[in-house]
Design goal:
about 500 residues; 17 helices; mainly alpha; single chain; 2 domains
């Protein structure tokens, strides 16, 4: 099987897993917004945001650093694979233990600092979520390194479906936000067991056990984890600190508005999550084998198709935000509408940034990415402190768009030094896609006058998709035959 076919097959597996996970996540949002009060919903996701930040210290980039060396050694020195896994897993156990103890000690202090004493039981019990969500991520990163995208995607699907099923059951039993958290804990326990069984059975035992560990391997894994930790910490601050600051300056209901908007943006990132996860180890492998031109072609075409898909999608989302929020989440969440419209621009930036960021980590450029992410995250924090008290929850969205624009341009510049991307090719696509988006957006805006319920809203969206499709084919930026022949999404 050719390299292109291998990539397409792995991408298809990951895309299916991402679709299952994201559809499950979308259903969780709908279910929980209907079963919980807006305050309970905000408290639940405020808890998840806190654990997301603490989770940085639960791994410190060890899992991703190990994945980088697994990718490298499976092509050059298979005897070190077990050593990489054993050392990284031992480091993970140590770090997760320290992080869990810290949460148990400081949970009350965190809750009272945020002015939300209701967080105390959620933070205390949520330590289990911290442990097993980190463990699931460790297993998934290891499978990604082996390019076992099939089982990595199944693992993702298990997490998504498990969260939906278990959280719905516990909430229906009357446990409120605590029940939703217990559902997440149960799902990650199941996923962790599955993930580690797969890693052990299909990979770990297939490599020699008696090879002594290289003298400086431990040091190199730790050293490379440092910029990865910096990038991860900055990324989490970008994604979660704004949520926490909304809770600090405003209230749990405002947190709910902001979280719903960001979850909708994450929902439309399904294809890009699959692209980034699938391609990043391929970039590393191609560079290790001195085939950087192949990596450049793969990346360039991926970005071209991202622009083709996400500029129209973001345009449509901005236009239909009002009826979308009202019809799906209810009048209680209309405060999320301006937030979602602002974050529409963020959707495009995020789509470009995901495969670029992951690619840089596997290309050995984690340090440069870490610096870019760190600087923009500090700026994001400062802008949140200014904008949230000034203009409310929408201020967090404005800060995100400004700082993520700077970050996306920065990492594109860095990867361009590796690949020498043909900028003219991307500008040509950008101009044509903008034209298509304007025409499509105008039609959708006019048709909103006929939206009376969810069915008619879906109808308007489908008409927009048809207009996008016809115009894209007509002006030659979309080739239907190639899309059908080489599904999904990216033409390699």
């Amino acid at each position: 099987m050719s390299k292109s076919s291998n990539i397409a097959t792995r991408l298809q597996s990951e895309l299916i897993g991402q679709i299952i996970y994201t559809l499950s996540s979308a259903m969780i949002v709908v279910v929980l917004t209907r079963l919980l009060t807006s305050e309970e919903y905000g408290l639940f996701y405020l808890t998840l945001s806190i654990f997301s930040i603490v989770g940085i210290f639960a791994k410190l980039g060890i899992d991703k650093s190990a994945a980088k060396y697994i990718t490298e050694y499976k092509n050059t020195n298979e005897g070190q694979i077990r050593n990489v896994i054993k050392f990284s897993f031992g480091s993970f156990l140590f770090l997760i233990s320290i992080s869990s103890i810290a949460i148990l000690i400081f949970s009350e202090h965190v809750a009272y600092f945020l002015g939300e004493p209701e967080l105390i039981p959620l933070l205390s019990i949520g330590v289990m979520f911290l442990i097993f969500s980190a463990a699931t991520g460790f297993a998934r990163k290891t499978l990604q390194a082996f390019e076992n995208i099939k089982y990595a995607s199944i693992l993702n699907g298990i997490v998504g479906l498990g969260k939906l099923a278990f959280s719905a059951v516990f909430v229906l039993l009357g446990l409120g936000a605590l029940g939703a958290l217990l559902g997440y804990i149960t799902a990650t326990i199941v996923a962790t067991i599955f993930g580690f069984i797969i890693v052990y059975k299909f990979h770990y035992i297939n490599y020699p056990a008696s090879i002594p560990i290289e003298t400086d391997l431990r040091r190199r894994i730790i050293e490379y984890s440092i910029p990865l930790t910096g990038s991860k910490a900055a990324d989490k601050l970008d994604k979660e600190i704004d949520t926490i600051l909304v809770g600090f300056f405003l209230n749990p209901t405002a947190v709910g508005y902001y979280v719903i908007s960001k979850q909708i943006i994450e929902f439309i990132q399904v294809p890009i999550n699959a692209v980034g996860f699938t391609l990043s180890p391929t970039f590393g492998s191609e560079k290790a084998n001195d085939r950087i031109d192949n990596a450049q072609i793969i990346y360039q075409r991926a970005i071209g198709n991202i622009l083709l898909l996400y500029i129209p999608a973001a345009t449509g989302l901005i236009i239909i935000a009002d009826p979308l929020v009202r019809l799906i989440f209810g009048e209680e969440y209309i405060g999320a509408i301006p937030v979602l419209q602002t974050l529409g621009v963020y959707a495009i930036l995020l789509a470009v940034a995901k495969p670029t960021s992951h690619g840089l980590d596997y290309l050995g450029r984690a340090k440069e990415r870490s610096i870019a992410k760190g600087l923009t995250s500090v700026l994001n924090f400062i802008l949140n402190l200014i904008f949230i008290p000034m203009i409310g929850v929408s201020g967090a969205a404005v800060a995100t768009v400004i700082t993520f624009s700077i970050y996306t341009l920065s990492i594109f510049y860095i990867i361009n030094k590796e690949f020498s991307v043909k900028i003219g090719y991307l500008i040509h696509i950008l101009i044509n896609v903008t034209f298509v988006s304007i025409i499509m957006g105008g039609a959708v805006y006019i048709l909103l006058n006929y939206v009376a319920n969810l069915i008619t809203l879906i109808g308007v969206v489908l008409i927009g998709v048809v207009i996008w499709l016809v115009l894209s084919v007509s002006i030659g930026i979309l080739d239907i035959e190639k899309v059908v022949d080489e599904l999904p999404i990216v033409k390699w």
